[in-house]
Specification:
This protein is mainly α and 303 residues long. It contains 15 helices and no strands. It is 72% helix and 0% strand. The longest helix has 47 residues, at 256-302.
C-alpha cells in the first residue's frame, strides 16, 4: 500500500516540476487505488496506523500549499481516510496535522470557502479539465456523505445568491444525490435555470464553467432548422394577429420594423409575380399556338 502512496506523491512532484510529463489518467488511477483500501483498513488496524504514519511523513516533506493539485489531493484523501478508516482514533495523525495547517478547522466550511474557490481558480490546476471535473465530484461526494444535508428543494432565488463556484458545487452535489436527468423534471431547479437561460450566462464567465455545463449537457443549442421553424411560427402568429383587425393591421405596419418587413415581403411578392405571370402567359400562349397549328394541319389533311 505504501508503494501506491509513494507513486501518488511522485505524480504530485512531477505535476509541479515537470508538468509536461504528468500523466493525468495514471494519477487518477493511483488516487482511486489508494482510496479503495480505506474501507478494508477498518479491520486491519495495524496497517491503518502504519499507513497513517506514512501519510504524515510524505505530507511533511513538501508544503501541501505548494500547488493546487497537492493541496486538493492531500486534504481530500486524508479527510476520506479519517472518516472511513479511522474507527478508533488511532490512525488520524495525518488528518490532525493537515487540519492544523488550516485557517478554517471544520471540514465543510473549509471545503466550501477554500477548496472550491481554489478549484475554480484558473491557476489552481493549470486548466486541466479532467482533474477539475474529478475534484469537483470528489468534493461533492465527500460533502454528500459526511457534510451538511443538501437542500433538494433549493429555490432559484437562493441559488442565484450563491457565488459562482458554490453554484457548481451545488449542481454537482445534486447530480450525485438526485440523478443526472434533472433537466427532464419540470419541478427541478435545473429545469428552471434552463428556461431562464442561466446556464449560457454562467458559461460565458469562465472556461471551467463552460466545460462543466457542456459535460452535463446543460448547454442546449438549437439547430438552424429549429431556430428557423421557431421564427417562422412566431412570424405567422404575429401576421395572423395583424390581419385579424384592419385597425390593428394599420397600426402594426406603421411601426418601423414591421413596416420594413411588410414592404420587403410586398416587394418580393411583386418581383415573383412579375416573373411568374409572364412565364405562365407565355406558356399558355405557346400551348394555344400549338393547338391552332395542330388543328390547321388536321384540316389540310382532311382536304
Amino acid at each position: 500500500m505504501n508503494a501506491y502512496v509513494e507513486d501518488l506523491f511522485s505524480y504530485l512532484d512531477r505535476f509541479e516540476t515537470r508538468p509536461g510529463e504528468f500523466d493525468t489518467e495514471a494519477f487518477l488511477q493511483t488516487y482511486n487505488g489508494v482510496y479503495t483500501v480505506f474501507e478494508a483498513l477498518t479491520e486491519q488496524r495495524d496497517k491503518a496506523v502504519e499507513l497513517d504514519l506514512f501519510f504524515v511523513d510524505k505530507i511533511k516533506q513538501t508544503a501541501p500549499s505548494k500547488s493546487g493539485l497537492r493541496l486538493l489531493t492531500i486534504q481530500l484523501l486524508i479527510s476520506f481516510f479519517e472518516a472511513e478508516a479511522d474507527i478508533d482514533g488511532q490512525s488520524n495523525k495525518g488528518y490532525l496535522y493537515c487540519r492544523s495547517l488550516r485557517e478554517i478547522k471544520q471540514d465543510v466550511p473549509y471545503f466550501e470557502r477554500h477548496l472550491i474557490p481554489l478549484l475554480f481558480n484558473d491557476a489552481g490546476l493549470t486548466g486541466n479539465v479532467k482533474l477539475h471535473r474529478f475534484f469537483l465530484d470528489e468534493i461533492a461526494r465527500y460533502l454528500n456523505k459526511y457534510g451538511s444535508r443538501l437542500d433538494a428543494n433549493l429555490t432559484p432565488e437562493t441559488f442565484d445568491g450563491l457565488s459562482d463556484p458554490m453554484k457548481f458545487l451545488v449542481l454537482a452535489r445534486r447530480r450525485l444525490l438526485i440523478g443526472n436527468d434533472l433537466l427532464k423534471d419540470r419541478t427541478s431547479l435545473e429545469f428552471h435555470l434552463l428556461q431562464v437561460k442561466a446556464f449560457p450566462k454562467l458559461a460565458a464567465r469562465n472556461k471551467a464553467y463552460r466545460e462543466h455545463l457542456s459535460e452535463w449537457k446543460y448547454l442546449q443549442t438549437d439547430s438552424f432548422w429549429t431556430k428557423l421553424s421557431g421564427w417562422f411560427g412566431e412570424f405567422t402568429g404575429k401576421l395572423g394577429g395583424a390581419f385579424s383587425s384592419w385597425k390593428y393591421f394599420r397600426l402594426v405596419i406603421r411601426q418601423r420594423n414591421a413596416a420594413y418587413l411588410t414592404y420587403t415581403i410586398i416587394m418580393i411578392l411583386s418581383i415573383l409575380l412579375a416573373i411568374y405571370v409572364p412565364m405562365k402567359w407565355s406558356a399558355y400562349s405557346g400551348e394555344q399556338l400549338e393547338d391552332l397549328e395542330n388543328h390547321a394541319t388536321e384540316l389540310q389533311q382532311g382536304n
